[in-house]
Amino acid sequence: MSSDTNIAEVYNGIVVQLETLLRSRFDDITWDLGRYSELDAQSKVEHLPNGNQRITGIIVTGTANDGKHQSSFIPIDFTPEGYSTIENLDETVIALAEQLRIPLLEPAS
After folding, report:
1. How many angstroms from the chain centroid is the CA of residue 101?
2. What is the predicted pLDDT for the residue at 82?
3. Which pTM was predicted?
4. Closest to 77 in 3D by CA, of 56, 51, 48, 46
5. β-strands 53-63, 69-78 pairing
6. Cβ pair 94, 21 in contact under 8 A
7. Which residues, other chains included, contact 52 with Cβ-Cβ below 8 Å and sequence gap of 6+?
8. What percent of the chain lies above the pLDDT cut of 90?
9. DSSP secondary structure, 36-85, as one string
10. CB atoms within 10 A of CB 44
11. Contact 73, 39 (CB under 8 A)
């Protein structure tokens, strides 16, 4: 298995867990966290000279029932071993989701 496959699988597994956490906590919003392929397409994956890769953040998008959406980027340094520079990544994602959620639930003016 290449390091590309490894980091993609580990990262995608973590964002699926984070999405599940957000959906259980804030079920009035549809939550999507950018997968590896989305990050790579947006130049959020660094291709290192040693052949490894480093993911530089997580994209968090919330969509309300009326179609409004909010998105933000959490900068991290995610290594092939699955470690993040943010110690409490789940708490950081929850805090960001709370901020994104507020304008999504406001009635349209």
Report:
1. 15
2. 58
3. 0.85
4. 56
5. antiparallel
6. yes
7. 3, 7, 79, 80
8. 59
9. HHHHHHTT-EEE-TTS-EEEEEEEEEEE-TTS-EEEEEEEEEE-TTS--S
10. 20
11. no
When computed from its CA atoms, the radius of gyration of the chain, rounded to whole angstroms, is 15
Instruction: Of 9, 1, 27, 45, give the one whose Cα is nearest residue 104.
Output: 27
CA 21 to CA 5: how far, in whole Å? 24
pLDDT digits (tens, 9 = 90+) for 33-76: 999 999 999 999 998 898 888 899 999 999 999 999 999 999 98
Strand partners, 69: 63
Kindly write down the DSSP assignment for every residue of 77-88, as one continuous string. Answer: EE-TTS--S-TT
Structure tokens of 17? 């867990």
Write the burial class of residue 67 (CB in 10 Å: 0-12 exposed, 13-18 middle, 19+ buried): exposed
Look-up of token digits 């390091």: 3
What would the two tokens of residue 29 be?
């919003």
* Whole-angstrom distance, CA of residue 106 vs CA of residue 109: 9
Contact call for residues 97 and 60 (beta carbons, < 8 A): yes
